[in-house]
Amino acid sequence: xxxxxxxxxxxxxxxxxxAADFAASGDNLVLVARSCGKLxxxxxxxxxxxxIEVRVCPQDLGQLDAPSKIFxxxxxxxxxxxxxxxxxxxxxxxxxxxMPEAELHQMAMVNMVALAALTRLFxxxxxxxxxxxxxxxxxxxxxxxxxxxxYYSGTKAFVVRLTExxxxxxxxxxxxxxxxxxxxxxxxxxxxxxxxxxxxxVTPISSPAVVVRAVRRGLESGSMxxxxxxxxxxxxFTQRLLPRRPVVMLAGFFxxxxxxxxx
Length: 263
Hints:
By secondary structure, the chain is of the alpha/beta class. The protein has nine helices and seven strands; from the N terminus they run E-H-E-H-E-H-E-H-E-H-E-H-H-E-H-H. The chain starts with a strand and ends in an 8-residue tail after the last helix. The model has no long low-confidence stretch (mean pLDDT about 90).
């Protein structure tokens, strides 16, 4: 049976770059995102360029039954998912108290619920085979609350904590799980979707290539948490030296996501 790497959020941004990288390494792929058209276009490109098999499974991870539909699609097609890359996620910036309830619900579903459900669905077969990997794309925002991105940073903290706990549970099974935690990435449409004015971001905005390299580094090492850049590592290390209040204030300043206050 052929092995496959399943990537969520594969139609744009980091997910698309990861799909291209895994394809270049000869991995067969299952691509998941909402947009069927974009997925099919990418699938044709990757099949033609790399001679791999690419299956497309359009699903909206904001829907409760999406993870089970993805799992059923793979099972019915006889696809052995050897690597699960949970890349789908989005942010909405602004004051938490003013955020539409529908946006909060969608963010929770995509960033947390779907990620956990997919992991739980695909883990048993990996454990039976005593091999496999789960890659969770989290964020530097997971390490502290970010004013203006309160809910998003909370969802990414969940991803990191879940990953840490499962890493302990999976020790000695032959199955790996780790989280990649990038800072701001030049991600197609992410900031427009979030309503985030990029010009207010103080920290560097990196290429998606740094996340791709971090994922490769995680697969080749035993790391549980992978920080893609030196800046990311310095930010997390510095937090250990400061009280939490200034850490949160600095995170809000660097992100530039808070609502502008009238004077």
